[in-house]
């Protein structure tokens, strides 16, 4: 662990961005300035003594355009304001900075450093929805860019998330946000952290002091509303006549980890998780889908939203409701890999910040309610919570995190003067939108790291090594047993292998097993075509029916006249009846194309499986007589 002294002004946020030249830059936000971190090449060395030499550069010369004539002037922070939080949008390259009652957009391209006011006019901190000129924020505690035209913010003391719609690309210079609107649901306790996983669709993680929730879709459409739709929404909010519009607590998804009101600290796992296939024949994810929130509500009021108990679902203004529908502000239900209704045995004391890495793992910093030192935890997509580190020389009431190049994780006290760096994994990277112009921390997303991949480094907290061919994968018994029936039976069997720290799958394909691990840990089913057969076979062997079925259906979709015979023979040999039925139907429907494009395959079919050839021949004759 490395300690780097930064600024006596007090560190508020640390962001890592990619410059116009494709270089990585780390910026430190203090209460009154934005300063670059110098000497980043030291991070690649891994030498802690060298890394300790990082230092701050001079403050960036921020500028703003004068509204009267558009002239560029030095930026001046308004009186009684101070910078609060910052976020980087990896899609647009823009930086967003929140103050006590204001939010700016910062354009660093071509060293212009232009600050544009998006929300607020300064003055008293309030919570008011509407267009940016009349909207108000109250010390935005979290700012997250969603990569599709909006910011998500959480005002101080609030149990609701708000959406700041960003000006469209063609908007005039100096345009403010066309709309700031409060989202459903309303949580049972004040929120402390928000993080986004840039999956497809994006997932949103929300934390109170002691619990973490996962939304499998965003609570709004990812298509930015048009100016007309924003105006309609704003008109609906005006119709609310300043009344508070309560949220709907029924839309809060099940817990991913932790428990509301229990501030003890313990590692643990969600009970009752098993890999299942969905009804109706569709392959499901490894976790039962949740009911993700989808309704957007507006609010116009004063002060913070920190009610201790959720409000009721009633009381919505009809004009605002109609406007919300017109703007397409509902992101559907929770498909994919949602949270199950299982019970989490993990506990958190006081969560103050969290971020997501490229494999969907949450890194969480918290502190004891009676202490001032941070604790670092990791939450896996399946709900497993492990403690990473507790040995920090930092004190504070709130802490922040940032991922730096080289896999370094920066931990800092909010408004503190130093940060501490810990290197969890050399390949550790943040979750970034697929359209981002390159990764921030070097290398390709998902390369190396947590499962003993290209980096060769063991996963954090790993306690079992799975050897597949000539590759080794560092894994966690608890996750394998909870999500895979094969490993659960193995570890509970009492045989010699059940207690060993190394397990072998000598006949399996290492590439397929790597993807199986991504499925077990992250519920990812992005299976590449060349590995579909190996994946289907290995998933079947490991008693993962949904993963095997998904691979088989992808294989069926990818078959063609040239490959269908080989696919038929393979499916018949493995006993994959559903796939075999589908391939037979394809063969019969495309018999003329097969004869023209792959006549040799018919001889192969006759030689290797006369029975299957005869069955298809007879079925073809019957089909021709109809």
UniProtKB/TrEMBL annotation:
Bias (Low complexity) ranges: 316-325
Keyword Transport: no
SUPFAM superfamilies recorded: POZ domain (SSF54695)
Biased composition (Gly residues): 326-336
GO CC field: cytoplasm; ubiquitin ligase complex
Repeat keyword on record: yes
InterPro entries, per the entry: 6-blade_b-propeller_TolB-like, ABTB1, BTB/POZ_dom, SKP1/BTB/POZ_sf
BTB domain: residues covered: 462-529
Pathway: Protein modification; protein ubiquitination
Region (Disordered) residue spans: 294-336
Pfam families: BTB (PF00651)
Keywords: ANK repeat, Repeat
Protein name: BTB domain-containing protein
Organism of provenance: Volvox reticuliferus
């Amino acid at each position: 662990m490395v300690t780097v002294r930064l600024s006596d002004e007090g560190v508020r946020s640390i962001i890592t961005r990619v410059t116009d030249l494709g270089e990585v830059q780390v910026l430190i936000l203090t209460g009154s300035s934005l300063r670059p971190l110098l000497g980043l090449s030291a991070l690649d060395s891994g030498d802690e003594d060298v890394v300790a030499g990082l230092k701050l550069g001079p403050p960036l010369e921020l500028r703003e355009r004068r509204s009267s004539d558009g002239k560029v002037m030095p930026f001046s922070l308004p009186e009684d304001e101070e910078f609060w939080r910052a976020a980087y949008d990896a899609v647009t390259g823009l930086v967003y900075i929140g103050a006590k009652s204001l939010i700016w957009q910062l354009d660093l391209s071509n060293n212009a450093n232009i600050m544009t006011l998006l929300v607020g006019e300064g003055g008293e901190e309030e919570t008011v929805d509407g267009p940016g000129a009349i909207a108000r924020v109250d010390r935005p505690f979290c700012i997250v860019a969603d990569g599709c035209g909006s910011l998500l913010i959480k005002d101080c003391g609030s149990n609701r998330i708000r959406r700041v719609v960003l000006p469209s690309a063609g908007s005039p210079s100096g345009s403010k946000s066309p709309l700031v609107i409060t989202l459903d649901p309303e949580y049972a306790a004040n929120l402390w952290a928000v993080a986004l996983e840039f999956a497809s669709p994006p997932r949103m993680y929300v934390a109170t002091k002691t619990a973490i929730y996962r939304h499998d879709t965003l609570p709004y459409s990812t298509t930015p509303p048009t100016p007309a739709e924003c105006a309609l929404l704003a008109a609906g909010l005006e119709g609310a006549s300043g009344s508070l519009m309560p949220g709907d607590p029924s839309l809060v998804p099940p817990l991913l980890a932790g428990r509301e009101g229990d501030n003890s600290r313990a590692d643990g796992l969600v009970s009752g998780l098993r890999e299942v296939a969905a009804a109706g024949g569709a392959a499901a994810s490894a976790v039962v889908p949740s009911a993700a929130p989808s309704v957007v509500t507006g609010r116009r009021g004063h002060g913070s939203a920190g009610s201790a108990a959720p409000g009721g679902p009633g009381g919505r203004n009809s004009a605002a409701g109609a406007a919300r529908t017109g703007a397409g502000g509902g992101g559907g239900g929770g498909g994919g890999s949602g949270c199950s209704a299982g019970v989490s045995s993990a506990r958190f004391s006081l969560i103050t910040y969290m971020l997501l890495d490229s494999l969907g793992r949450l890194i969480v910093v918290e502190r004891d309610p009676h202490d001032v030192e941070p604790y670092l935890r990791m939450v896996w997509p399946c709900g497993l919570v492990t403690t990473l580190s507790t040995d920090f020389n930092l004190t504070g009431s709130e802490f922040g995190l940032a991922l730096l190049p080289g896999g370094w994780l920066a931990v800092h006290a909010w408004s503190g003067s130093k940060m501490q760096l810990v290197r969890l994994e050399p390949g550790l990277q943040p979750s970034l939108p697929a359209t981002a112009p390159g990764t921030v921390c070097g290398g390709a997303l998902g390369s190396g790291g947590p499962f003993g991949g290209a980096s060769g480094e063991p996963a954090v907290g790993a306690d079992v090594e799975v050897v597949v061919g000539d590759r080794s994968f560092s894994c966690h018994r608890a996750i394998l047993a909870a999500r895979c029936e094969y490993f659960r039976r193995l570890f509970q069997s009492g045989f010699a292998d059940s207690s060993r720290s190394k397990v072998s799958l000598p006949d399996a394909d290492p590439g397929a097993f790597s993807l199986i691990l991504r499925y077990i840990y992250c519920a990812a089913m992005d299976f590449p075509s060349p590995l579909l057969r190996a994946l289907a076979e290995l998933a079947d062997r490991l008693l993962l029916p949904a993963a095997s079925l998904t691979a088989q259906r992808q294989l069926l979709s990818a078959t063609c006249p040239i490959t269908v015979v080989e696919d038929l023979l393979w499916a018949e040999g493995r006993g994959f009846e559903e796939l075999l039925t589908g391939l037979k139907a394809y063969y019969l429907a495309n018999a003329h194309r097969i004869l023209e494009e792959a006549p040799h395959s018919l001889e192969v079919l006759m030689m290797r499986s006369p029975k299957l050839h005869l069955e298809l021949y007879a079925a073809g004759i019957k089909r021709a007589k109809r």
